[in-house]
Specification:
Distance between the termini of chain B: 66 Å
Number of helices of chain A: 9
Structural class of chain A: mainly alpha
Distance between the termini of chain A: 59 Å
Radius of gyration of chain A: 20 Å
Number of strands of chain A: 0
Structural class of chain B: mainly alpha
Order of helices and strands of chain A: HHHHHHHHH
Number of domains of chain A: 2
Number of strands of chain B: 0
Oligomer: heterodimer
Helix content of chain B: over 70%
CATH architecture of the largest domain in chain A: Orthogonal Bundle
Largest sheet of chain B: none
Order of helices and strands of chain B: HHHHHHH
Chain lengths: ~190, ~170
């Protein structure tokens, strides 16, 4: 139903002449988000969020796409006023949901993993760690990353992953035990 | 029995992230199975995090901002086009109903009961001056609307001539 978009486009262009849209604000919150606010938020949160996405999905192109999608949703959706911590939690939750949607569509299984630009393949110790961590399941990687890199507590992890807070304890224990075992065996093998 | 969790686990994880270890906690992390695992895993993940962050920069904020703005425009455009789509559906319904009515009015067999009554009713409407004026107005309005709809339907067949992000 892409018909007559030119007429509709004229209407939108008239709407865009209104001050709210000319001023480039997104009315996603009780207070609209302007570009400077967004840039500050993005600078503070995009690095850890992208690292999380890349660690779980293991493809830089997919991680970048999902990162962009997460922030677009943040800007376009209406949600209540959130403080810094809630915003961070919200971003991780959306990113995790996007990862799950992506995994369900199985789009990532078709293409082989793309190496990161600038990574040093000759650094054996780092490769050992990476090899060990890659043997974990995506869900395990999510939990470990949120708990130990982002420092989230069980409730925050439950909110980000959609799991029950009570399940987090046992799942995290299993994931940590598995990761420690893999790291140990990699060290011994090396 | 294997312990699931140690009360110092979060402190160990935080110290591994910040690099500040108290003497007691560091000693505990060496002796406690849960905390030594936590420390090893946290340090491995932090090394991975550092590698990822150093390897590639995140996309520019401006790029994401522009993409969100483009989507907002598309959303507005889609919302504005709703009435055009609704009008198209109404046009099709109107055209089908009118055509059916005309067919039944002019070519239905005489044995159909409702046709004479409808004719009589329509004739009686036309005989009275006020109603005749109203019916004429309605016919003219239908003609105008049909011409407008024809224009809209004709537009629908034309390909999109500009990018959606204009």
């Amino acid at each position: 139903m892409q018909w007559n978009l030119e007429l509709a486009g004229n209407v939108v262009q008239r709407m865009e002449r209104t001050p709210e849209i000319v001023g480039l604000t997104f009315d996603a919150h009780a207070g609209a988000v302007d570009e400077a606010d967004f840039r500050a938020l993005y600078d503070a949160t995009s690095q850890p969020l992208r690292a999380y996405l890349l660690h779980v999905c293991r493809r830089p192109d997919v991680a970048d796409d999902l990162l962009q999608e997460t922030y677009c949703r943040y800007l376009l959706r209406r949600h209540p006023v959130m403080d810094e911590s809630q915003t961070r939690s919200w971003l991780f939750r959306v990113a995790t949901n996007l990862l799950h949607d992506r995994a369900r569509s199985r789009a990532d299984t078709i293409v082989a993993e793309v190496p990161e630009r600038g990574s040093a393949p000759n650094m054996e110790s780092r490769l050992d760690v990476r090899t060990a961590l890659r043997q974990l399941k995506p869900r395990e990687r999510e939990l470990l990353w949120l708990a130990y890199v982002e420092g989230m507590n069980h409730e925050e992890i439950a909110a980000a992953t959609g799991l029950r807070a009570l399940s987090i304890k046992i799942l995290l224990f299993r994931a940590r035990r598995k990761a420690a075992g893999l790291l140990q065996s990699q060290k011994r093998f090396a | 029995m294997t312990r699931l969790r140690c009360e110092h686990e979060s402190d160990v994880s935080r110290s591994a992230r910040t690099g500040f270890w108290s003497a007691g906690l560091e000693q505990h992390a060496e002796t406690c199975g849960v905390c030594s695992e936590t420390r090893a895993v946290t340090e491995a993940l932090l090394a991975e995090s550092t590698r990822i962050r150093a390897a590639r920069r995140v996309p520019e904020a401006a790029r994401v901002w522009l993409e969100a703005r483009r989507r907002a425009r598309l959303h507005l455009r889609h919302r504005a086009a709703f009435w055009f789509r609704a009008l198209r559906v109404l046009t099709v319904i109107y055209a089908v109903a009118s055509f059916s009515w005309l067919l039944s009015h002019h070519s239905a067999p005489a044995s159909v009961h409702w046709t004479p009554s409808l004719r009589a009713g329509f004739a009686s409407v036309l005989t009275r001056p006020a109603e005749a004026f109203a019916v004429t107005g309605a016919l003219l309005a239908a003609l105008c609307i049909s011409m407008g709809f024809w224009y809209l339907l004709r537009e629908a067949r034309q390909p999109l001539q500009h990018s959606p992000g204009r």
